[in-house]
Amino acid sequence: MSSPSTAPDDLIQPFRLDPFALRGRLVRLGPAIDRILSQHDYPEPVARMLGEAITLAVVLAGALKYDGIFTLQTKGDGPIRMMVADVSTQGALRGYAQYDAAKLDAALARAGISAPSVPLLVGSGYIAFTVDQGEDTERYQAIVELAGTTLTECAHHYFRQSEQLQAGIKLSVDRSGPGGTWRAGGLMLQRVPPEGGYGIIADDVEDGWRRAMVLMSSATAEELVDPDLPPHGLLFRLFHEEGVRVYNTHALEARCRCSRERIEGILRAFPREELDDMRKQGVTTVTCEFCNTRYGFTRADLDRLLAADS
């Protein structure tokens, strides 16, 4: 997944702040996030919230060492019932949201001029982080209640519950003018356990952490998504006095993992009675919730599936 790149978009830019053992990632999403959010006719508040979820998933995935799929999922009792975003170690990115249009309209009417928030749009529920490295490995999952106005605050709530991860995050999702293309950006700073050889005392490490968090917070929402501000330029503006060191970027792209073969595998798991009912209806259409691709299955296709399992 690592490769040097001068591209300004669809990448994770890892960096490090010396000498305080602070690790970071800058995420920039352009065509990838626009493709994912544009594949469905989401109302703008839903698209914006899903964009934040996808960007947060990428930021968190970049902090982990894994070989498989990292998934972020929210479930709540608000208008947005569920959001799912996942990213593979190869950089394949996808996401979707399920929402209730009537509840959304009512919630936005109640909010008036207030900015849409997690309590308003997602409601009470939870956010889950899952690492799946395949059938022969144990899945790791962390679940925490949705506690915060934004998804960033919800992630910080998780960090406060964790003894192994101390981190700060900043996210931005916007579009270039009314009806324009979507863009997203994110920053994450993470404290790592000091290794031998730093030669610094605890107070210096603490001061370095606080200063780095202040500098990160000075990044504006516009800077995080600005296509004319290269990732290296933003990192230099924020952290040049801290000795920022950048590493090879990780490329990202909007790519769904659905296929006709996968859908056939799902259909084979259905009870024979249900497959028989589908067969009687003629053509059965299955739509991928992520990319909105439609797969059609005729009577002959279903006959073949039934025969294969008989």
Architecture overview:
There is one protein chain. The protein has 310 residues and is an alpha+beta fold. It has two domains: 2-254, 3-Layer(bab) Sandwich (Hsp33 domain); 260-308, CBS domain Like (Alpha-Beta Complex). The chain has helices at 31-38, 44-61, 101-111, 118-121, 151-161, 202-217, 221-225, 231-239, 260-268, 272-280, 299-308, and strands at 2-3, 11-17, 22-29, 69-76, 80-88, 92-99, 125-132, 140-145, 166-175, 182-191, 244-246, 249-251, 253-254, 284-287, 294-297. Strands 1, 2, 3, 9, 10, 11 and 12 form a seven-stranded antiparallel beta sheet that branches. It has a six-stranded mixed beta sheet with strand order 8-7-4-5-6-13. The longest helix has 18 residues, at 44-61. The two termini are 42 Å apart. Residues 1-6 have low confidence and may be disordered.
